[in-house]
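Weekly modeling sync, notes
Attendees: AB, CL, MP (scribe)

Item 1: holo prediction request
CL wants a bound-state model with S-adenosylmethionine before deciding which constructs to order. AB pointed out that an apo prediction alone won't tell us much about the pocket. Agreed to run with the ligand included and paste results into these notes for async review.

Input as submitted:
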Amino acid sequence: MRDNFDRRIDYLRLSVTDRCNLRCFYCSPGRDFVFIPPQEVLSYEEFLRLARVALEIGVTKFRITGGEPLVRKGLAGFIRSLVELKGTEDIALTTNGILLRDDLDSLWKAGLRRINISLDSLDPRVYGEITGGGDLQRVLDAIDGALEKGFSPVKVNAVLLKGKNDDPSPFVTLATEKPVHVRFIELMDFSPTREYFVSGREAMARLARFGKPEEAAAPQGAGPARYFTFPGMKGSIGFISPYSDHFCATCNRLRISAVGRLLPCLFSGWSVDLKKMLRSGIDDGSLKAALRDALSRKPRRREEAAAGARRNGLRTIGG
Ligand code: SAM
């Protein structure tokens, strides 16, 4: 599949739930969650049908996200079914890691090999403050468990927030000691938290004391990040900088929210209601046409995406 700007689109992100067991202040503004009624969320069967149809028109990679995907029952079984679909080449999971340690075995058996763990601070107090009470130790145990089990690459995603966790140094130590790939993601404009924005460049500038960074090869499934290593590092440090770097030119993805809305761009105000189509008995051909139509609306750059999706926090879209 190619979009109007000749980008190859082969990657579909599936947000399997809007529910989350953390309350990160920048992701869930106000921290007051109004959950979507379960019947409004796509069933695994519905996600699988969409995935099968997407595979038939050129998608080869999936990422499972949310909300927190591990709070949804039966996730490993769903991943196994995705792995078994004809044409699936790659599946990854994005999780906050809180429930991960206990699920590592079943996820591995289901065929999952790649995990991204969101972790914004290595200080237990700051982590608890950002996440609304999260237990850092559980996430650290999950990282160790994932590495022991052989998951690879294990990536850690950190959003640096001015005045909260804006010193990236502890993450450099983490990537020095363990073969994890830490990516600093610039805070995106989904909620009124711009005052916390730290650019990728600022973060990099603060790492001068670790020596001269060398540009590194990207680990599998690299996406829009640029990677570096510092002397003696087992893992790497990456930057995902939607604001200070323009990465839209290489965007390869579409996303489906928990309620079955397909967004051509993370910043899109426009989306198409696939759930309505699925539940009104649409045939595969028309579903493919709907996916292609959404693809044709993929904006060249995020600035050109219609406004509207930015106010609700990333949890509702699928991060
Ligand atoms: N619960 C899972 C997790 O924590 O990885 C998946 C969903 S969560 C929305 C995915 C990622 O989105 C997390 O790494 C989170 O830090 C990030 N995120 C949420 N709001 C964001 C924002 N405004 N800007 C940048 N990243 C954001």
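Recorded for review: The chain has ten helices and twelve strands.
Action items: CL to compare against the apo run; MP to circulate these notes.
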